[in-house]
Predict the structure.
Amino acid sequence: MAPDQPFWRTSISRVRPGEILVRGHDLIELIGTRSFGDVVYLLLSGELPVRGEGRMIEAALVAASEHSVVAPSVDAARFVASAGVPLQAAVAAGIIGLGDHHGGAVDAAARLLLDAAETGKPVREAAEEAAGRVKDRGGRLPGYGHPVHDPDPRAGRLLEVASELGFRGSWCRLALALEDVTESVFDRPLRMNIDGALAAILLELGLDWRLGKAFYVIARAPGFVAHVFEEQTRERPYRDVGWERVGYDGPEPRPGP
Amino acid sequence: MAPDQPFWRTSISRVRPGEILVRGHDLIELIGTRSFGDVVYLLLSGELPVRGEGRMIEAALVAASEHSVVAPSVDAARFVASAGVPLQAAVAAGIIGLGDHHGGAVDAAARLLLDAAETGKPVREAAEEAAGRVKDRGGRLPGYGHPVHDPDPRAGRLLEVASELGFRGSWCRLALALEDVTESVFDRPLRMNIDGALAAILLELGLDWRLGKAFYVIARAPGFVAHVFEEQTRERPYRDVGWERVGYDGPEPRPGP
Amino acid sequence: MAPDQPFWRTSISRVRPGEILVRGHDLIELIGTRSFGDVVYLLLSGELPVRGEGRMIEAALVAASEHSVVAPSVDAARFVASAGVPLQAAVAAGIIGLGDHHGGAVDAAARLLLDAAETGKPVREAAEEAAGRVKDRGGRLPGYGHPVHDPDPRAGRLLEVASELGFRGSWCRLALALEDVTESVFDRPLRMNIDGALAAILLELGLDWRLGKAFYVIARAPGFVAHVFEEQTRERPYRDVGWERVGYDGPEPRPGP
Amino acid sequence: MAPDQPFWRTSISRVRPGEILVRGHDLIELIGTRSFGDVVYLLLSGELPVRGEGRMIEAALVAASEHSVVAPSVDAARFVASAGVPLQAAVAAGIIGLGDHHGGAVDAAARLLLDAAETGKPVREAAEEAAGRVKDRGGRLPGYGHPVHDPDPRAGRLLEVASELGFRGSWCRLALALEDVTESVFDRPLRMNIDGALAAILLELGLDWRLGKAFYVIARAPGFVAHVFEEQTRERPYRDVGWERVGYDGPEPRPGP
């Protein structure tokens, strides 16, 4: 870094006395006139919505907003909250847990759709090939199948909203084609889950596939807050699983060498 | 914990095959029909909005959404991002940093308003007493004054929106009364900043003052995502401040004892 | 900050090409000649040990190193690990959880000892007053009593080691006096736990009471690593509590307003 | 999970009233008789040292313990600390930052050594091939070269200690062979850095290569504590980079669409 250069460089926003510019737009003008979804789109894409992208994002955020303590990230946030930490620190522990087996399936599903599309083949053929490659590697098809829901009602509803708002394009078709081929490729039908739907919508919105986890990071924030607050105001401090409930299968008592 | 009791208990949501119930409401029905602000309000208060609370929350989230690398939490997220970690982990580092001197001023300002109101005294008198107590303790008045902005344009705009949406009630009046008395109490005018406005709005919405940091935790999530993504896609890995730029004022080289 | 000043200033260490100076000592000379406990003491106190402080610290770190999944911080780290995140990110989730009800009891217990000592009264009288004040506030006595162990065998062993190494001074005596008065003050004997012993040792070592959590932060790091690694290499990804095991006590299904 | 099975299963430790068993060893017997390095080895490998592994680990921990604010993880921890959060939460932000471009180079370097060894070829040939593959992929050789130090004095000293303690075996030889071939493969000599030395030592100790980051996670904990404490006790709250120092290269002010 040259000594005469600023340490930080950003294209996201500019702060000066009395001014906050976000991607070229005066933040003050956005307050009360633009939805949070619009601003999410602005922050992630660099542009304000021109055809309802903010509404599509709000629907996606609502869909991903809460799934109770069935999500391991929420369990983590509540355990941490019980230990006596500030609200935002407990939320952060939950957010760390939006990992590759959690929110990360959106990235993977979006990458899968991109790879299929890049073959240039007809939709069904591209879907079969893509699913086949996943099967050959012995992996799971990201965005399809769910441990609790069959089908996942969030996926279907998200695609409906995408239709209503004009975002049910070629990425949604490809995602549905993948669903169609699962029975023949994997010998059992795998229904599109919320991550598969979010992946298709991410691409319909023109966002980078590597932003897949962003939906969960943003959407789950208020749910983490609610769980942390409930843990800290309604439950006993220091959540204890109980030593009797732990199964130990290490070495029996032994002397040191 | 009795052995026949569930390990987890929550009033926030219920997940069963094909069902996600949030505070008694079917999540599927909320997707595409309710704003994210409505769902934030539902998660935090337990009820869906009845008089525009969701729009007020969206305005608050937009106002708090981005303040560039001038916020230390964003610097933290970018340093961590540069070290090669997944998006959500770098965002989490930023969220941890929404501490008592950052998003925490909303809690403190809301607590100040509550304490003042609980005296039962006329607004101006209550404001003078509250500001006086802070001064006597040698502290800063949380929610007033800003290191960059004078005045902070977000505060004024938020109060305007509160007027438009019918949320400019007694808490806003008390917050403005506090602003009015700063010149006489602190010998210089301290203008309401975004945290002061958020505190008043938090109370107008009937939310618990301890949820003050929630606004920042939720609002900043997309900005953290944008900064982490920019750092990881546009800057060199392993952001290095440069050893020449570090001032060391510890002991000079010395032998061990 | 003046433009000609370095952005960072630290008295902890200096890095130049070929040189790493820690508190004035050449790091290279410490490698292989000094224990990790010596370096922990150097980093925290600013000085290398002169009378066995490093050995005392190592004993404290060993005592606090592991308490299985009975600690909520470990549960948090394992839930996060199961979601598919890098090792250090899952460990970080655990470390966040070393909160005021966890590692934080060391700070609180050390503060209690300091407050008692500052009265200048005889040991037993000071202990009675200090315990009485805690009881009057309706609080728990930090550092005494344990949900699983009665007594906590780590406390007794740590005091033994303190004797052996010459660190059983006035702070240990005061901590034992507090144990002695619990029966009369709280109507039941509360035995010193590991946090109480760590607090006394912290003060015997001349360290700042606000560093109480440091023992846990450092000591638990390898245990967090072991738990995260075990979770990621031996358990199924995405640890699921099972929706059947969750008790929901929120509103029953209801229509929107 | 079957309902009659414990929720948690672990081979690391067992807690019962009055008992803490770590990998089969009574924790109480380890306090004051075993070094922290011994216990780190026990936690990570499952066994107590039999030939000085704990001393080798302590040397490695001391070597990796501190590198000032030149490490981005430390900058992150200090920014977060300045925002007013508990000590352990700020440390956690730093630990998140021990990512793939930071502590993660140890994993990558260990993997490189394993891949080279698995070819079964003579050392120099295996080293040339391994370095060549890295070069062909356009990558950096993990564990070699350093932005500040040339050579990194920690690497040489660690290998010396490995000799003294009997851990300078075939993995160290292979690591040195890699250093030797860098000049011919990359057209400039790349000296082994601390990560390369830690990788070799990790394998000499028989530990899993995926534990590479563990050295940094454990070793840096006290340094993070020291930096967080210094930031919170010596510097002004809310570390501010200064808006004048930020370079904005996004769109100029523009109206909304």
Notes: Chain B has a mean pLDDT of 96. The first strand of chain B starts at residue 8 and ends at 10. Chain B has twelve helices and five strands.
